[in-house]
Amino acid sequence: MRKALAVAALGLSVSLFAQSVPEINYDANADILTLPSSGEVAGVATNSKGHVFVYARTGHAVATLGDERTFYHGGSRLFQFDPAGKFVKEIGQGVYSVNFAQQVRVDPQDNIWIVDAGSNQVVKFDADGRLQLVLGRKPENITLRPGAGVPARQIDQAPEGRGAGGEGGRGGEGGRGGGGRGNAGSPGAGIPGDSFSRPSDVTWDRAGNIYVADGYGTNNRIAKFTKDGNFQKSWGQTGSGQGQFKEIRGIVADGAGNLYVADAGNKRIQVFDGEGAFKSQITNIGTPQAICISGGAAPFLYSSNSNDPESMANGEIYKLRLNGQVVGKFGKAGKLPKEFGIVNAIDCRTENDLWVGEIWNWRAQKVTLKR
């Protein structure tokens, strides 16, 4: 009887919480952009001129055999569109890093950054699409099957006795960014430097410092670099305590330099200062995946409670104040326009005009919130 009452009370609590979050009216247009090549839209971002950038998983990476290495490239594509949705050009054709799209962001200077989970690299292009900076290095090992009945070792899984990120866990030697060597400490803490294990997102503070969310592979950490790509510090490890993470899916900074980290496995957003000191956490918003902070004098935080693959549950996007107060939510899981399928990216330059990138539905929708 007591168990039944407890379950009923829990259900009532969840129900009351769900009812207490206002529904935000909105419109959405899923037909503005026509991708030259279709695939999962992992990232969508806009610049100050209203141009739209889409980083999509458009096919399998091509493997080229070298003398000692196998080079994977070309599994994804980065497209640019004008404000009306007309295709402008492709950026990064033939770039070594482009394997498996994870995210695209545009910084305050209109530089374009891609985060690639296949190559374990974060790459900066200028506003015209010219390569500027590389953080990380591709793993030098490939997926291997040692023998019959032995599982293949994945690219992001280090060989026994060696760190993640290639030979001996080396990082930063192949790009223009800084790197570091060292031994991994606690589980998920990674190796100091840019030895990433499937990075998921990138953001910056006002001074131009770069923060990389390194949390889809074996690492659960935030890595901080100078604007020139030199490694400064990292923090985080696998766990559920303050400053610990279970699968980091997104990161964004506010105007004061605070960092908001989508800690999906712990169903929360953790907030830190620029040095990694824990400040607060935001819960009761489901499983945060894509996060974004709007511009303007009164910025808002948006967070997608993305549905799991093959599930129609959840799918809504929450609108919050930076102190964690929920203003409302909109959307649900589905395949029709105005519905969302695994939202992996949100761009929100203004409070009411958003772009949403969807893995499940292979599209980017333009969303307009009604006042």
Concise overview:
The chain is 5% helix and 36% strand. By secondary structure, it is mostly beta strands.
How much of the sequence lies in strands comes to 35-45%
Output the radius of gyration.
20 Å
Low-confidence stretches: 1-18, 153-183
Helix content: under 10%
Number of strands: 26
What is the ordering of alpha helices and beta strands?
HEEEEEEEEEEEEEEEEEEEEEEEEEE
Helical region count? 1
Written account of the structure:
This protein has one helix at 2-20, and strands spanning 26-29, 40-46, 52-57, 62-65, 70-73, 76-81, 87-91, 101-106, 112-116, 121-125, 131-135, 201-204, 210-214, 221-225, 231-235, 248-253, 259-263, 268-272, 278-282, 288-293, 301-305, 317-320, 326-330, 343-347, 353-358, 363-369. Helix content is 5%, strand content 36%. Strands 1-26-25-24 form a 4-stranded antiparallel sheet, with no helix packed on it. The protein has a 4-stranded antiparallel sheet with strand order 2-3-6-7, with no helix packed on it. With 371 residues, the protein is mainly beta.
